[in-house]
## 1
Amino acid sequence: MARTMAEKVWEEHVVRRADGEPDLLYIDLHLVHEVTSPQAFEGLRLAGRPVRRPDLTVATEDHNVPTENILGPIADQVSRTQIETLRKNASEFGVRLFPMGDIDQGIVHVVGPQLGLTQPGMTVVCGDSHTSTHGAFGALAFGIGTSQVEHVLATQTLPMAPFKTMAVTVEGDLKPGVTAKDIILAVIAEIGTGGGQGYVIEYRGEAIRRLSMEARMTVCNMSIEAGARAGMIAPDETTFDYIKGRPHAPEGAEWDAAVEHWRSLRTDDGAVFDKEVVLDADALSPFVTWGTNPGQGAPLDASVPDPAGYDDPSERAAAEKALAYMDLRPGTPLREVPVDTVFLGSCTNGRIEDLRAAAEVIRGRRVADGVRMLVVPGSMRVKEQANAEGLGEVFTAAGAEWREAGCSMCLGMNPDQLKPGQRSASTSNRNFEGRQGKGGRTHLVSPLVAAATAVRGTLSSPADL
Ligand SMILES: CC(C)[C@H](C(=O)O)[C@@H](O)C(=O)O
Ligand code: SF4
């Protein structure tokens, strides 16, 4: 029978199947960070268990790290404890860790792909919802909770409830200035933040095929914001070229065998998805959010919507509430919304291509008066590469702050935060109330829009400069 890619990868990993019980899947790669691992390691310690496969487990420090003075002690007590606990656990259980100051340290979803740890056909888990990022390689990648983290540490397996399949097909060609971020914001606006619930989404179609690996990661990263369990893209030459030569990539005859297998993972012709959504890439334009969930977005050319225009009472109430929090008036052109902060970074858009795209816009220009721009590479390797290409200089010459790697202002778990009432254009993936700091207001945007907004001081695209 014709099968989807997700079904193939799942089947290859079933180690136990019994009637009325979830399948038990083997896990190929377990990524760990400081926030969701302490109780899991503590559970092992209490039970006297070792980590079953330390060689398939990799940890990094990202959420709680300050992005300045990284070699000094962490001022915040909670953050310091989290980081120290991870270091202690990693050394006690023999897990490889990339601590602050290490060239391989960075956001967990940037580090895995960068090292070639993430490969097609794998099952990848992490105690983090944006693990869906790794699906860009044709891996089945799930975010899991802390008790599941403990289960995987102990057994390298995980019982998983069955999923449904959804195809999101993006046909056609993106116009210049329109990016992967705009695709995924438009997808979420279309299907809603609950539209993906229970599904593994496969992104396909011409426009997806043409995306670089890093752009594909941006798309898959936000699958979870549509409520999906995972997002995937079939591996192809773009994928293989990206992985080849990375530290953990297979070599020689093993590489050839791996590629042959990876090619077989694509969804068979005639396979049936439980749900299908089709989008036209030509019709897309730069997209920004105006509300307090990632589905409350609109083209930058549009205006703040009028809640009265929603037929559905709960959507109307949500829009009213969002506009009150965001301090926005219906009918205001989105291009006229002023920001005081621009954040370029996160596991959605903190990779080298994101920085390059933004630097191209910023080069030779200045960040607008009264605007603070934070540029935070997703990993120290990204920072190193950006510096080698002169991008760090472009950002600092424009008046932006050029930081060390971490989650930074994506979420309020470290010193990089909005103050109450501040408003950001942010390349991250979540915009709920207080996400970037108590009382902060977030507009989700692409790196191109972030850069243009930094220059103009109001939500803008490079075409406006
Ligand atoms: C802290 C962590 C558990 C969380 C997640 O799971 O996504 C974080 O990464 C986020 O983006 O909100
Ligand atoms: S960058 Fe943001 S979304 Fe990604 S793992 Fe860190 S906090 Fe979560």
## 2
Amino acid sequence: MDSPSHSSVIIIGAGISGISAGKVLAENGIEDMLILEASDRIGGRIRKENFGGVSVELGAGWVAGVGGKEPNPVWELASQSGLRTCFSDYSNARYNIYDRSGKIFPSGVAADSYKKAVDSAIEKLRSLEANLDSEVTEQPRSPKTPIELAIDFILHDFRDGREVNGLSVKTEVEPISTYVDFGEREFLVADDRGYEHLLYKMAEDFLFTSEGKILDNRLKLNKVVRELQHSRNGVVVKTEDGCVYEANYVILSASIGVLQSDLISFRPPLPRWKTEAIEKCDVMIYTKIFLKFPCQFWPCGPGKEFFIYAHERRGYYTFWQHMENAYPGSNILVVTLTNGESKRVEAQSDEETLEEAMGVLRDMFGPNIPNATDIIVPRWWNNRFQRGSYSNYPIISDNQDVHYIKAPVGRIFFTGEHTSERFSGYVHGGYLAGIDTSKSLLEEMRKQKERKSESQTFLLEPLLALTGSLEAVPSLHKCDIPTQLYLSGKVGLQEAIL
Ligand SMILES: Cc1cc2nc3c(=O)[nH]c(=O)nc-3n(C[C@H](O)[C@H](O)[C@H](O)COP(=O)(O)OP(=O)(O)OC[C@H]3O[C@@H](n4cnc5c(N)ncnc54)[C@H](O)[C@@H]3O)c2cc1C
């Protein structure tokens, strides 16, 4: 068992946001920083698995947001570290929509259905934006045909209604110049070292020795944090294996799904403005099921990487991709399920899922195709260190909930993709959030030092210890905690100290 140790900062979670936060702290001279990670690896939702002789990405697979006016920092990291990627364009998928008898819908029918769905998505966004502050009443919808359901799935589940045909729905309603433009192109990671190679590259200077061994004073794996307790001058962190750590500050990078679960308890409990914002955020479940075959039986060639199965049940094994562009000759297919369908397959055996998937493939390609020889069904929902795949904020929102989810409570700072205003749900969202949170914390540490030197500590220290119990609504732009408390008017200085 570890003996109690004290650090300046403890970071909880070694996904992209935890690692990018740690890197900024290390670069700014915070030597005694410690990362506690619940699982036995770094990477979090960036996770590769060796499957059928190649490396497949069970979590993030695309470097998304490339080719715009500004460089996406994750794309830059990928380029610098020589990560092998291939351009991946799913906009042609609409020309490869199969019905249940294996016929491909004529391109005119598919293009029409697609255009109608895009127009209606844009119209809905415009009306949502116009009615941002008032209640929007949904028009009753007529029952949808299998092709409409399939297209609906691509627009709203597969890409969360964010992108349509290489064109962001959001940019249709909001001029692109109003926000950072990383672009709309996407590149599939096709590298045996996996997407996670980027994390190892980022971490090599501060979490590993030159021989590649983990620096145990910086990173501890298999440490499931169960309790965070504010103390007089910091935070006490308790892990499932009975270890206790102390730090002046904590950065918590656990996912929104974990924050919604009871994995971590807070003493005092988190204030209501925080818990309400956390509860409001939707969690998306996104499951990529990989299937290995003895030979290829699906069409390959330009425009054929993606294909769609139109079924009367929405999201039923709808979206398919072959891996021939990434790994020629690998004979691997991947099918994407989301939300309810993801939960359903997570609850059944892999054999049942394989049987269902084979039934769908036989509908599309005939009864004589070979059986898959292997399958992987990731279980992001049932993973208690994830509880879902990523945060799913409404596409039009005023960002207030993100601000509340991100705002520090006392000495606990929050990070992760779900705290990114613009890029939640993406790897670059997590990466940028980690940097942003660390910078806010460094600023707070600088101010704290100044306060100490101004000899105000006798009043401010007890205030900091009590912050977590208060219902003070955070200032949205600063993390000047004592000032927030003071200015909120919810509690008098005297009262707080008592
Ligand atoms: C299936 C799937 C597909 C995706 N596809 C893409 C894509 O193509 N492109 C893209 O840009 N993004 C994609 N994403 C999203 C992207 O993976 C995430 O946005 C990003 O990796 C999140 O990083 P993070 O650091 O915020 O969180 P995480 O990676 O979840 O890191 C948090 C870490 O905290 C740890 N943790 C949790 N609880 C505790 C605890 N109590 N104690 C200690 N440690 C704890 C977890 O084990 C985890 O390692 C996908 C995600 C999934 C799941």
## 3
Amino acid sequence: MSDKAPDALQARRTTIYLLDQVLGEGRLLAECFAAGALEKLQPQDRARTQRLALEVLRSLERADRILQKHLKKKPPLTVMNALRLGTVELCSGGAAHGVVNAMVTIVSKHRRHGQLKGMVNAVLRKVADHGPAEWAKLRIPRLPNWLRKPLVQAWGAEAVLGMEAAHFAGAPLDITAKPGADLSVLGGELLPTGSRRLSDAGQVSALPGYEAGDWWVQDAAAALPAQMLDVQPGERVLDLCAAPGGKTMQMAADGAQVTAVDASAGRMERLRENLARTGLSADLIVGDALEQTGQFDAVLLDAPCSATGTIRRHPDLPHAKDGSEFGGLIELQAQMLAHAWDLVKPGGRMVFCTCSLLPDEGECQVEEALEMFPDMTADRECFDGLGTDPAWITEEGGLRLRPDYWAERGSMDGFYMALLRKAG
Ligand SMILES: C[S@@+](CC[C@H](N)C(=O)[O-])C[C@H]1O[C@@H](n2cnc3c(N)ncnc32)[C@H](O)[C@@H]1O
């Protein structure tokens, strides 16, 4: 494709489609991408579409506040999403003429709502005049109440405001190095926990050392569970719920014999590609964690969860979900924890972790497991020398990480993790 203008239009049209899917159908962006939503786009339009969709979802509340002044009634969702995209583009420096024309063109071609193009034109012209000045005065977008309420209850109102600021700012790129790889050429900041953080990375696959497999992308918080497990060369380790494999790679790079299990064949394929790129190896099993058997020196269980700790990178989540699935996940986590415990040999150890902000998926799970299994103890010493703050250690002996921590450094994913030792 050589013509630039139609491509930019296609990127915006696809962005609106993605917003319709998230806000209308409750689908996650990752599901839309896996189903091929970006397939027909050129690489630069793909990147632009993803960036635009993330920006709109992060600032949806601001866009709606600006738009509500100019709308007598809410238009159909897809037209509203065109207005939202136009508003976000205009308020973040987009050229008024180009943005307004693009949205009018897109809406004019809509089979059912083409007649609303005049309204779109009028509203976006008003937004172009006044929106950019109003934008910065609006509050940082809040989480929807279904999630905000339990988080305020768990962590307090001030902490949640800090989390929302982190969600709005988005996430820098964190990198885990293969042992021995020198990543100083990448610049950025070496975090106290050992990850390297790049604030303005650009295209990941173009960075030095990516092709050679010297490193992989992994949030600083997500890099800690494998560090806590501290596997030794030759140990037999089971990585349950392993794909796309950030933790598998850490443990394989440390010389352990890793068996990685995941129920999703598609995600396991990504793990396979990651291992091939980094030149690391592990035994891969596509299957149910609950059906695994055997005895291992160490088990890492990164259980499926609400993923509410990852909203900085996945701002679609609070809009696509409503919390109704979380009860089932909490039950599954408890079952997995109990099953995984059976697979730890006497004298062995296990890390249980979830990328969730909800205590029900973290602190409470470990508290209950400690009551249920007399041979289980939580190891608090594993946090020594990890680069984390002692104040983050929880009552039952786990580590609670939150996006309002390290605010001055660019924050971190929300995570819970605990190292559980089995009596010998
Ligand atoms: C939080 S993600 C894992 C991230 C991974 N540990 C990493 O570090 O890259 C949770 C994973 O659990 C997998 N999963 C969900 N239910 C499962 C089950 N019953 N058995 C095995 N894997 C499961 C999902 O496919 C998903 O890949």
## 4
Amino acid sequence: MSGQFITFEGPDGAGKTTVLKDMVSIFESQLNNQLVVTREPGGNPISEAIRSIILDKANTKMDRRTEALLYAAARRQHLIEKVIPALDNNQVVFCDRFVDSSIAYQGAGREIGTDAVYQMNLFATEGLLPDLTIYLDVPSEVGIKRIMTHRTDEVNRLDLEALDFHKKVRAAYLDLAQEYPERIKLVDASQDLEQVEKEVQTIITEYLNQHR
Ligand SMILES: Nc1ncnc2c1ncn2[C@@H]1O[C@H](COP(=O)(O)OP(=O)(O)OP(=O)(O)O)[C@@H](O)[C@H]1O
Ligand SMILES: Cc1cn([C@H]2C[C@H](O)[C@@H](COP(=O)(O)O)O2)c(=O)[nH]c1=O
């Protein structure tokens, strides 16, 4: 695989979707149409169908391990159909969330255990990890407030979890960022959007200059 796999992570409301959209505008011309933009769960019809089931607010009975398995199933299909072919084709992949989300949300938030969730995901990923992860860090109160006050699109089943759940998710992300400082670059997403995007752009530019 000769391409570069760059993921965007963060608690709900950190600003991933907003920042990712603006990074696409900046990098797509520089990369001469070699940029593939995608998201998890989703990115292809099968994985988008799984996404609808997982995030449906009506599915209050979903067991936490069922949830973890569905994320991993969507991930597997997305890798096979979209991410790996793009990387094999020397393209750059920008992906909204990947396995770190499962470790933080299912491992810590749902209390399945971060190692258990990582091990379960190895079956889906065969060990593939991103080359670079932008982690947008935001206090849980700020993220939730942004979602509830500003967002015009759907508020999903996980957005509706209690503050304590979101705090566990954030704590797990901070642990991951500390454990893998080479791969995971933390950006303080409670700053102005302009400053957040300036820092993200610098990190991606430096990475691509070194690896492309
Ligand atoms: N740095 C920022 N300062 C203030 N508001 C922001 C900032 N970044 C994003 N927002 C706003 O917060 C809201 C949530 O942003 P966005 O949808 O990008 O978050 P997200 O991390 O993708 O959330 P989710 O993971 O739940 O989809 C949007 O209305 C967006 O305009
Ligand atoms: C990949 C993945 C995602 N989640 C959660 C995180 C969010 O609450 C939703 C996805 O919505 P977004 O608007 O696209 O951020 O799903 C998760 O719990 N586990 C995962 O592996």
